[in-house]
Amino acid sequence: MRLRHTDKRLCFSGCPQQFFEPMIVVTGGAGFIGSAVVAHLNALGETDIVIVDNLAESTKWKNLVSLKYRDFIHKSQFLAALPTPAFGAVSAIIHMGACSATTEQQGDYLMANNYAYTRVIAEHALEKGIRFVYASSAATYGSIESGFNDDDATSMTLRPINRYGYSKQIFDEVAIQNGWQKHIAGIKFFNVYGPNEYHKGDMSSVVFKAFHQISEFGYLKLFKSNRKEFGDGEQKRDFVYIKDCVDVIMQLVNKRSANGIFNLGSGAARSWNDLAGAVFTALGKEKNIEYIDMPAALKGSYQYFTEANVAKLASAGITLKKTSLEEGVRDYVTNYLLPGELRLQDRQPA
Fold it and tell me: Going residue by residue through the chain (350 aa), what tens digit of pLDDT does each one get?
């Protein structure tokens, strides 16, 4: 799939549709998951890709350096360009672009970016028969600490506890109400970690934060538990490696019969102590953890347990690799973090 027009860039008006062979659009293509998807496509020999993103002052531009793609378009221009002939032959839209900050307080901004923007793209994809795979979030589950079922009935009754979760939940609900989930694939990502997240700041994974804290100070701080059924550091999350996520995304892109809204985690909850131990081991250091009081602002909304029910993925014919926490952390630390952030663009996930 290659561009045959003499102009090697997209032209957003006046370009005859026949000049363009089917291409893949990746929104958020400079971000954490999006850049990993593009790197995977490149590894398969696919370069007929348009990346949609907003670089602003972020350092995520580094994720683009080694990627091969047809063009880059700013997210503010994408919706207007989408109906034009330049996008007349799109085979798939992988929509990873959104505001992913769970602490974002601007509700209108979240609704515009995570709901309205997604809805316009989805409606276009449905109208044109374009494969549409989008990012939802496990944040839609709110304060739930058991079940985590991704069936439609449960999805319609969820009550997120922050603005970010709600902005993701409302699109999921609209998709179900309109019957779109029978033709598209949504992914409720749990705790994803791995290469290319260095630009995320406070939203980066605890693996990333632990690596830098341990490397600098020799110890790691974890929150104490405020519930007697959980020891300090024994609060549990479903940690899933980015490479496993990308593999599932690509299966969903290629398997058009696999439709619905799916959980994507490892399916096995692990404790913060387990994660800490994996990072210390990968660094060849003795475990040294300091337990600190949880901030008062978190005590009422802190989740002590998350675990994705991934049966629906399997029933749709999607295989989940389930890289162990120890294996994933070892790969991330030794092959990406230890060589240094400036080399991340040269070591894209395959």
Answer: 333 333 344 444 334 333 346 899 999 999 999 999 999 999 999 999 999 999 988 899 999 999 999 999 999 999 999 999 989 899 999 999 876 666 657 777 888 888 999 999 999 999 999 999 999 999 999 988 889 999 999 999 999 988 888 999 999 999 999 999 999 999 999 999 999 999 998 889 999 999 999 999 999 999 999 999 999 999 999 999 999 999 999 999 999 999 999 999 999 999 999 999 999 999 999 999 999 999 988 877 788 999 999 999 999 999 999 999 999 999 999 999 998 744 444 444 44
Q: Which of 75, 109, 128, 200 is catalytic?
A: 200
Place of tokens 């799939």: 1
Does residue 321 carry a catalytic annotation?
no
Question: Quick check: is 164 catalytic?
Answer: yes
Q: Residue 329 is encoded by which pair of tokens?
A: 């952390």
pTM (predicted TM-score): 0.90
Considering the candidates 164, 193, 241, 336, report the single residue annotated as catalytic. Answer: 164
| Rounded Cα gap, residues 214 and 248, in angstroms | 31
Per-residue b or e along 71-97, where b marks 16 or more CB atoms closer than 10 Å to that residue's CB: ebbebeebeebbeebbbebbebbbbbb
Q: Which of 98, 130, 122 has its CA nearest to residue 112?
A: 98
- Return the structure tokens found at 190: 């749990």
SS3 137: strand
Domain containing residue 253: 21-197+240-267+306-323
Instruction: Say how far apart CA 312 and CA 66 lie, in whole Å.
Output: 35
Residue 318: strand, helix, or coil: coil
Neighbours of 45 (CB within 10 A): 8
Distances from the Cα of 164 to the Cα of 105, 132, 177, angstroms: 8, 21, 21
Counting every residue written for the chain, the total comes to 350
What's the CATH code of the domain at 119?
3.40.50.720
Which of 133, 137, 180, 130 lies closest to 158, judged by CA?
137
Please indicate, yes or no, if residue 232 is contained in any of the structural domains: no
Tally the domains of the chain. Answer: 1
Q: How far apart are CA 105 and CA 10, in angstroms?
A: 36
Q: Taking the alpha carbons of 328, 330, 335, 338 in that order, is the dihedral positive or negative?
A: positive
